[in-house]
């Protein structure tokens, strides 16, 4: 599958946020998006998913313009930047809802075993992020959009999540954004830097320095 988006025009309060975007993501490849705070990474993912409307946008799958918002196709899973799961939900119920096996999760993250009967509200921010990211990655969708999956997560869990993402790319089109740029550079096959409304393809750390993303 090839997923493309371009022709976006997004403004908030007369301030143009996105206007020169072309982004292509493909099954078998991880597409990473980097960019400074406020450059529009979350907005771009939300436009792709369909939860944010822009003045213009053109989303294509295998070259075919998508009239429907992507979330209505049932083929996309989205990890938003902020909390996904309702606070009062029991953790095992969240696994049931996503149709994901708890015992497989526990084989990778054994320290979470004690939480099965707890509620989402009883997790730390990082523990919640691990569970949410795991559920989205294992939700059996063709397209996966991840907004800051590594936020609040301890390095040992970041490594495990990275391994899962790399395994999933074989069957999924994955787009990921995060401020952990080294992690993004390590796992991504294609990287874009979002800057001044545009997407610029990036191939090395030197490019990031030249663009003023790194000092
Ligand atoms: N609902 C909104 N109303 C007004 N302005 C908004 C709204 N949502 C986002 N913005 C503005 O649009 C810009 C892009 O926001 P966005 O959240 O997409 O950036 P981001 O690159 O994801 O930032 P960060 O890395 O800090 O999460 C920011 O300047 C933000 O203030």
From TrEMBL:
Pfam families: ABC_tran (PF00005). It comes from the Bacteria. One of its GO terms (molecular function) is ATP binding. Keywords: ATP-binding, Nucleotide-binding, Transport. The keyword Ribosomal protein does not apply. Residues 3-214 form the ABC transporter domain. This is ABC transporter ATP-binding protein. The lineage of its organism: Bacteria, Pseudomonadati, Bacteroidota, Flavobacteriia, Flavobacteriales.
């Amino acid at each position: 599958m090839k997923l493309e988006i371009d022709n976006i025009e997004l403004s908030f309060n007369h301030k143009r946020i996105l206007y020169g975007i072309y982004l292509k993501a493909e099954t078998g490849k991880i597409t990473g998006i980097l960019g400074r705070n406020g450059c529009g990474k979350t907005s771009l993912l939300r436009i792709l998913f369909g939860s944010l409307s822009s003045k213009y946008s053109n989303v294509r799958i295998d070259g075919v313009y998508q009239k429907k918002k992507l979330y209505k196709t049932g083929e996309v899973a989205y990890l938003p930047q902020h909390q996904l799961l309702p606070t009062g939900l029991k953790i095992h119920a969240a696994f049931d809802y996503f149709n994901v096996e708890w015992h497989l999760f526990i084989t990778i993250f054994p320290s979470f075993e004690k939480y099965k009967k707890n509620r989402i509200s009883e997790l730390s921010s990082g523990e919640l992020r691990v569970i949410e990211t795991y559920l989205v990655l294992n939700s059996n969708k063709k397209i996966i959009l991840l907004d800051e999956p590594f936020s609040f997560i301890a390095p040992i869990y970041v490594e495990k999540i990275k391994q899962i993402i790399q395994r999933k790319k074989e069957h999924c089109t994955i787009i990921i954004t995060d401020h952990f740029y080294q992690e993004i550079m390590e796992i991504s096959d294609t990287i874009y830097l979002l800057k001044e409304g545009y997407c610029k393809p990036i191939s090395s750390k030197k490019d990031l320095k030249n663009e003023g993303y790194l000092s």
